[in-house]
Design brief:
- This protein has one domain.
- 77% of the residues lie in helices and 0% in strands.
- It has helices at residues 7-28, 32-56, 62-88, 100-117, 119-122, 128-150, 154-176, 181-209.
- The radius of gyration is 18 Å and the shape is globular.
Length: 222
């Protein structure tokens, strides 16, 4: 654990809350490009957390995770998603399954739930960073899942999945001092392959239905 007197504690604490704020903004985004930019910003905050944790947690191997996150999550994946949006010429999210105001309330409820279900664990540990990062990690995962199941555009659902992965990375950085490099590389490769497959799938939806609204897939049922 980080020492409470270190400067890194304050930085990681605020950066984790920034990741939480970013995922709340995602819930309110109806422009696909803006959603991708917010995801890239959230990933940049995750890279900054890994940077401060690399020295504060005496886990110097985390510096490789910083480079990995920047290359894959901050630059690579957003670039691919933006190219996909431009190619499909679809700029905005259609009306979601859950209305925007209700979505915001639901996201706020998930944040409260994340902090509530962690309280027994938090009582066993001291440290503001651990408290915020653990609860924030779970909240980001839950809200990312919420984005996936309440949005109709395939791209938004992809961003929801990627957001969930950011939450998993945050939890891994703080609770385990980072995963082994081989596992990190494997996860990043899986994400890139997954994005490529989902991109192809999105193109097929567009060709078939002239839309990337996944709710139209119901018409394929026999």
């Amino acid at each position: 654990m980080l020492e409470n007197s270190s400067i890194g504690v304050y930085a990681i604490d605020r950066l984790a809350l920034g990741m939480l704020g970013a995922v709340i903004i995602m819930v309110l985004c109806n422009r696909l490009a803006a959603l991708v930019y917010v995801y890239a910003f959230q990933s940049l905050l995750l890279a900054a957390i890994a940077f401060f944790a690399s020295s504060g947690l005496h886990a110097h191997h985390l510096i490789w995770m910083v480079y990995l996150i920047i290359i894959v999550k901050v630059l690579g994946i957003p670039y691919m998603l933006l190219r996909l949006i431009d190619t499909l010429t679809i700029k905005r999210e259609v009306e979601p399954y859950v209305k925007w105001p209700i979505s915001l309330l639901a996201a706020s409820g998930l944040v409260i739930l994340a902090y509530y279900i962690q309280r027994d664990i938090l009582e066993l540990h001291e440290g503001v960073v651990f408290n915020h990062c653990l609860s924030t990690s779970l909240a980001v995962i839950l809200i990312g899942l919420f984005l996936m199941i309440t949005r109709k555009k395939a791209i938004t659902q992809m961003v929801g999945l990627l957001t969930m992965e950011n939450g998993v990375f945050l939890g891994a950085i703080v609770l385990t001092s980072g995963m082994p490099m081989v596992i990190e590389l494997g996860m990043s490769f899986d994400v890139l392959v997954g994005i490529l497959i989902m991109g192809v799938f999105t193109f097929r939806i567009k060709e078939t239905f002239a839309s990337i609204d996944t709710s139209k897939l119901n018409s394929l049922r026999g």
